[in-house]
């Protein structure tokens, strides 16, 4: 099944945008009421669907990790008021879209593989949603908004009730400037007694939500925040050395993990590679270096593609990491744009790193 799904998806991946458009058109015909669950502008939602599909295809032969991801996704979808029948409509639309674009490659075997796989996906998500009796979302009031660069802002919010999460998790947020356009963000701090969450947001070109957050957020705004998800977490019993690789505001969950580690009595050694296109993109570098100066377990290596940073490397994060070592004795966490994650994971695999020791989350960008 895994082989058939991967091969058939690869055959149409270049037409992913067209598949996504057809999928949503079919979904709204099969279940018209689902249109109200989505924003007016569907471009962000279409790209998110594609990333989810790619992630599922990549994980299809790693059932334990896939089930964990789908369980979190099912819990998260409670905020949309998704009903059980909507899963059936999504399955019908997905199979119709794949059949249309695969054409003669849509064989009985391929159809059976995708039907079986989607059945597992829908069952896992539906059961997770039904089993969760917690809140589908929290109200959170903005208590701070500050730009650190022209395109990056730090936003601090205080939820109306404690929101359970672990350092490294991500959450979905809906802001009043962009209703129904949920965006995934990672808290940049470990859980605190006062309950606040801090987010680092870059205004992405073409990003409706990120630009609204960076440029138009006001103190007093009320956000909606969904439940925590993600694979970038470290347990207190962790003893293996850690390699953290963060690009741009992908630094946020890694900062939260470092914040958490700093409170432990004993922790593993940590090497953080922090990358940006230009030196000015490394908005958190000074703070990280101050922490490293008093934390012998923490090493920081800045990486820029243009310009130079004292003590840093030039080039892509993937290249810089591969040139610094084999990392065979490290657990590795990667956070950044989808392109950066793909390039970095691919490079790590080529130098012999076992995929089971690499963790990353699929949703990181508008």
Helix proportion range: 40-55%
Question: Can you count the beta strands?
Answer: 12
Please state the second-level CATH architecture of the largest domain.
Orthogonal Bundle
* Cα distance spanning the termini: 31 Å
Q: Which descriptor suits the 3D outline?
A: globular
Question: Which residue ranges are poorly predicted, with pLDDT under 50 across at least 5 consecutive positions?
Answer: none
CATH fold-level name of the largest domain: Globin-like
Beta-strand fraction estimate: 15-25%
What is the count of helical runs?
Answer: 11
* Class per helix and strand makeup: alpha/beta
Average the pLDDT over all residues and give the rounded result. 89
Biggest sheet, spatial arrangement of strands = 4-3-6-1-2-5
Radius of gyration: 21 Å
Task: Provide a descriptive summary of the structure in words.
The chain is α/β, with parallel strands linked by helices. It has three domains: 2-131, Globin-like, CATH 1.10.490.10; 138-225, Translation factors (Elongation Factor Tu (Ef-tu), domain 3); 241-360, Rossmann fold, CATH 3.40.50. 41% of the residues lie in helices and 18% in strands. It is built from eleven helices and twelve strands. The strands form two sheets. A six-stranded antiparallel β-sheet has the order 4-3-6-1-2-5. β3 and β4 (183-185) form a beta hairpin. α4 (63-76) packs across α6 (108-131). The protein is globular. 39% of the residues are buried.
Indicate the topology.
Layout (H helix, E strand, L loop, with lengths): L1 H11 L3 H15 L12 H17 L3 H14 L7 H19 L5 H24 L6 E10 L4 E8 L11 E4 L8 E3 L11 E6 L5 H9 L5 E4 L15 E7 L3 H11 L8 E7 L8 H9 L4 E7 L8 E2 L2 H8 L5 E6 L2 H13 L7 E3 L6
Parallel strand pairs: 7-8, 7-11, 8-9, 9-10, 11-12
Antiparallel strand pairs: 1-2, 1-6, 2-5, 3-4, 3-6
Helix pairs in contact: 1-6, 2-3, 2-5, 4-6, 5-6, 10-11
